[in-house]
Amino acid sequence: MAEEEAQEADESPEAEEAEGASGGGRRSFLIPVVASAALVLAGMGAGFLMFSRDAPEEPVDSAEAPQEAEADHPFERAQSEAAHEVAAATAAAGAGKRLGAIFSLDAFIVNIGDGDRDRYLKLKADLELSKDTVAEEIEQRLPQIRDLIISLLGSKSFDDVRSIEGKDLLREEMLRRINALLVTGKARSIFFTEFVVQ
């Protein structure tokens, strides 16, 4: 009986090792599969998060769609271009120095020539002043300033004002004429806040 128990004890470890070897083979096969599946799922989750950030937060309302289409109108496009030019001029003129007092001029609407066609130019501008006190003088001389600007704009053609260089030249001419009238100070720069030719 002791021999039988010893024999069973000897057979048990061998049987367990055989079972462990076959089970361990399955385990070693499952580990790479599970790891691969986890990596694929993690990649999909990361991709979802990345692309979901780029998606618009609110759905586009169909009522807003016609407004976007209207932005293709030449008048709207010209206003958009003018806004970009104002931003560029402001950045160039004000780089590194403090902006002075601003005096806003009312809009100017004048006829300009374009070959056989008649066009009109609508211009709105703000003046940057060297001193705050210059605003009082501009207020007093406003009829003179408006007259000289209207005369200057009316002398221009469409070709004169359609390029950026043409607008810069117009800006310089306006400043020169305005500053020729002023005594107490001067206009440092002029910013076109609206510039539409139609």
Notes on the protein architecture:
This protein has 198 residues and is an alpha+beta fold. The chain has 2 domains: 59 residues; 130 residues, no CATH class. It is 61% helix and 17% strand. Strands 1, 2, 3 and 4 form a 4-stranded antiparallel beta sheet that branches. The chain is elongated and about 90 Å long.
List the helices and strands and how they pair.
Elements: H1 2-54, H2 65-70, H3 74-93, E1 102-104, E2 108-114, E3 117-129, H4 134-140, H5 142-154, H6 158-161, H7 164-181, E4 187-197
Helix pairs in contact: 5-7
Percent strand equals 15-25%
Mean pLDDT rating? 74
Note poorly predicted spans.
54-72
Shape: elongated
Helices, by number, come to 7
Helix content: 55-70%
Most strands sheet? 4 strands, antiparallel
Number of domains: 2
Q: What Rg is obtained from the alpha carbons, in whole angstroms?
A: 39 Å
Element pattern in H and E:
HHHEEEHHHHE
Multimerization state: single chain
Span of the ends, CA to CA: 116 Å
**Number of E strands:** 4
Briefly note the structural class of the backbone: alpha+beta
Question: Which key terms come to mind for this protein?
Answer:
7 helices; 198 residues; four-stranded antiparallel beta sheet; alpha+beta
What would a concise description of this structure say?
This protein has 198 residues and is of the alpha+beta class.
